[in-house]
Amino acid sequence: MDIDWLRRFCLSLPHTTEQIQWEDDLVFKVGGKMYAVLVLEPAPVWLSLKCGTEEFAELIERQGIIPAPYLARAHWISLTSPVVLPRTEIERLVRGSYDLVFAKLPRKKQLLLAKAPAGKPRKGKA
Questions:
Q1: What is the CATH number assigned to the segment(s) 4-123?
Q2: For 94-104, how does the pLDDT look when each residue is reduced to its tens digit (9 = 90+)?
Q3: Angle subtended by helix axes 87-104 and 4-12, to nearest 10
Q4: pTM of the shown model
Q5: At CB < 8 A and 24+ separation, what contacts does 31-35 make?
């Protein structure tokens, strides 16, 4: 499974941090809040991310996209494999998830991140 392209894409988004959580999940965050979870070991899901209410309802109707375990009530979806959607569509969904999470950050945190140079991606909390 080639995850490098997705990792590079996530780390290209401003102020993204990454960390391993729950033993084998690579979690991408902005402002300390997760926007994408990439499963590193074989599992029933490959990638989970947040989406809008309408898009959530549309996406879970598609083959290979399910409500994300534990996070579906917050409109998170999971892709069962990296070939469910083309890369460009996955990147669009990840960017949308990033934007939704950033928009929900407290205004003060958004302003702090906007003032800080994006710099190199870091591991750990932002």
A1: 3.90.1150.30
A2: 999 999 999 99
A3: 40
A4: 0.87
A5: 31/101, 31/102, 31/105, 31/109, 31/110, 31/113, 31/126, 32/109, 32/125, 32/126, 33/101, 33/104, 33/105, 34/101, 35/94, 35/97, 35/98, 35/100, 35/101, 35/102
